[in-house]
Amino acid sequence: MSPVKRPVLWALGFLITGVMAGTNVFPVPFSPLVYVMLILFGVCVCGALHKRYRYWPVFLFALFLLAGVLRGVSRMETGIFIPESETEISLYGRVSDTGGLTAGGNRRVVVRAVYQGEPIRVMAYLQPHLPTVEIGQEIRMTGELLPLTRAANPGGYDAFLHLRTQKIDAIIRPTEVVAGDVHRNFNTAIRYVRDRIAAVFDSVLPHREAGIIRSMVLGDREALDRDLTEIYRVAGIRHILSISGLHITVLMLAVNAVLGKLIHPRKAGVATLIIMVLYCLMTGAATATVRAVFMGGALVFAKVLYRDYNLLTGISWACAALVLYEPLMVYNVGFQLSFGAVYGITLLTDPIERLLVWVRLPAYGKFRNGLAVSMAATFSTYVILAHHFYEIPLYSIFANVIIIPFVVALLVTGVVTGLVGLVWQPAAAVTGSVVFYILQLYEWVGRFFGALPFAVVRTGGGSVFVSLAGLAVLLIFAYVMNGFGTELKRRMPLLLFGIAALMLCVYLRDFPIRPQTTELDTLGNYTVHRRHNRVTVSGTGRGGENELLRYLDMRNVNRACALVITDWLRPQDIARILPVLGRVRVLYLPGNERLLPEALAKAVEANGITVIFY
């Protein structure tokens, strides 16, 4: 056995550090010399580990660092060059995947095509009036081919990082589409099965419940009800809408248990792995699904080989494999939430349960353990949610304690309903009623906790230092609570120091010492001036208000001191300005009071805003 405890964790740490360096996430200009110095530093760290443990394979960690740098640098390249003169081109290819609808009603379609003699994958956004296409269908598109762009504003949508993780090279918004023949293959066959099962759900369940179970079982989010999704988000239970590790584990163990009754356990394990891989492909092979199948497969395969399974080692290998395959995945929110929750459960459950015992919580046995698991998963994802979404659902711990025990029944009956409905619709209606009532319970739980005061707390985010400090506090807590007696008392000051450092980082983020001026790249030319706790916004009011509100959320600005409109407001500008008014105290407008539009006057009075004309 290796004297280095958890060598896969060390390898994963070196790999992710290399990826972050190769993608230039650090605020310093990287050059080949800097990369060489980083590799030499990694070798020095490996030398220190070898001196401590006398184990020469630790030098392999430096190879993971090098692999991360090389993979990160290669993936940051756009892959294709699009001349500015080519404002409209025609692409011919074949549809490889179809996604859901955008907020504007356009359909996402991934097309494999050839551009400048090179094979590329293009994300096409088809408008509603264009022909509907399916997987395996030939397609000719005419439109403007656009490169993947980075976020124009702090906290904005980064199309490059998001779409490159899906192996997308460019975007096209076609004005004309010609659909051709459909070529049947393995992908079209398994998608046909998914569509048939989705049709069963639609026929035996109401629209809202059918959309939820389609998302949970099939990974099909197209039919999700937006209002119901918002209820789940506020309550902190939106994660059940995705095919998570819990879902895969339940399904995998259920399939393995059934097959184990029919055939030899080893054969049942192999058959289970094959079935779950096919299931992963059928549901679109999302990050959470691939990770869960990888981990669940390791669990089943360990049983096949009569070996013990270590969860921490299993998820680390799964994480390393995915990062090597797609380095930019480390910036994907779903990837971070997926692994963050599992790492949190692995590392924090026992320390939290000891804390519950220490504070003499009147809870025993499985309930206390379930509460500890829910708290571990929730606290570990709070850091990620705050960093990317600038808010946290405060009561998600309690909501998850209620809904998690019903997940097994919901998934099993959901799968049975879909499969039975393929051959016998009346029987599917009976099992579908169980799905309906469990989902009704979920909706009630979401509405109850979402209606409580402070259901969602705005935290601000986007700061790497604050996020790292929050992560450090969780790790320090796990270290401290693993001590007993005098050892626990000796470690406690370290936890207090970590909490104080986190609070200091949050304070410096929200109240910067030096004045800051941020110019947003919007049609309204908004500029945000910050000095300590005083924030002033100025702009023309001609567009970009959503980007402005997102920036204020990221900086945790509940209400700015003033909004200065530098140009005359047109009638079409009023509706865009209204949401911003709830976030300011004083409004400066050009002109005089007689020119103030009625809708704007009502909003000003409702929000208690002082209007100053100049």
How are the elements arranged and paired?
Elements: H1 7-22, H2 32-53, H3 60-75, E1 89-101, E2 107-115, E3 118-126, E4 137-147, H4 159-164, E5 170-182, H5 186-204, H6 207-218, H7 226-235, H8 245-262, H9 265-282, H10 287-304, H11 311-325, H12 333-358, H13 365-389, E6 391-393, H14 396-403, H15 407-421, H16 425-450, E7 456-458, H17 464-481, H18 486-510, E8 516-519, E9 527-531, E10 534-539, H19 545-554, E11 560-565, H20 571-581, E12 584-589, H21 598-606, E13 610-613
Parallel strand pairs: 3-5, 10-11, 11-12, 12-13
Antiparallel strand pairs: 1-2, 1-4, 2-3, 4-5, 6-7, 8-9, 9-10
Structural overview:
This protein is α/β, with parallel strands linked by helices and 614 residues long. The chain has 21 helices and 13 strands. The strands form 3 sheets. Strands 8-9-10-11-12-13 form a 6-stranded mixed beta sheet, with no helix packed on it. A 5-stranded mixed β-barrel has the order 1-2-3-5-4. A two-stranded antiparallel sheet has the order 6-7. Helix 19 links the parallel strand 10 and strand 11. Helix 20 (571-581) runs parallel beside helix 21 (598-606). The longest helix is centred in the middle third of the chain and has 26 residues, at 333-358. It is globular. The model has no long low-confidence stretch (mean pLDDT 84).
